[in-house]
Design a protein that fits this description.
Order of helices and strands: EHHEHEEHHHEEHE
Low-confidence stretches: 1-9
Strand content: 15-25%
Radius of gyration: 17 Å
Distance between the termini: 33 Å
Number of helices: 7
Length: about 170
């Protein structure tokens, strides 16, 4: 039986966060800022706009949202400026995707070919179960913006990743 994950939203519903995530520590003067995102495909395709964000609150939200998926740890008392790491836990991918996989199988069974051929809610719901587009995003080492789902799929269990800057976005 799949347990339902409870996520507490700490930002208004139409806002989310972009996290800078790299394989090496990031000097604070190189942390992600809204300026880094403003002129990318992301603004216009996913976001209406980007803005400064509170890193401490964002990391707390990430930690709460990905409980059982990532170990999120920060050095020192100041999360706003301290070194923070995430590490994919054993079974983290199954924890993150398990319920959605189960729901995907049910949705596909209940969808007719006619519904699937249309650009309607059934097709949208199935697509969203596979990949959430309006969610946390990761700005990676190569300056790619990818949904958290994609980052989790590409992550290796036990590998430490470092958190840099965070940026708020409105969708």
């Amino acid at each position: 039986m799949w347990r339902e994950r409870t996520i507490t939203q700490t930002k208004p519903k139409m806002h989310s966060t972009i996290f800078q995530v790299t394989k090496e520590p990031i000097p604070q003067d190189e942390w992600l800022t809204p300026v880094d995102i403003d002129d990318t495909w992301f603004v216009g395709d996913i976001a209406d706009y980007v803005a400064d964000s509170n890193r401490g609150n964002d990391i707390a939200w990430l930690k709460e949202t990905t409980k059982g998926v990532f170990d999120v740890a920060c050095e020192g008392d100041n999360v706003e400026t301290g070194t923070c790491r995430i590490k994919l836990l054993p079974c983290g991918k199954k924890e993150h995707f398990g319920e959605r996989f189960h729901n995907l199988k049910e949705a596909v069974e209940q969808t007719t070919l006619e519904q699937f051929c249309e650009d309607g809610m059934e097709e949208y719901n199935i697509r969203t179960l596979v990949l959430k587009r309006f969610c946390f995003y990761v700005y990676d080492d190569e300056r790619n913006l990818i949904p958290l789902d994609t980052f989790i799929r590409r992550s290796e269990e036990g590998t430490e990743y470092y958190l840099g800057g965070t940026v708020d976005y409105h969708h």
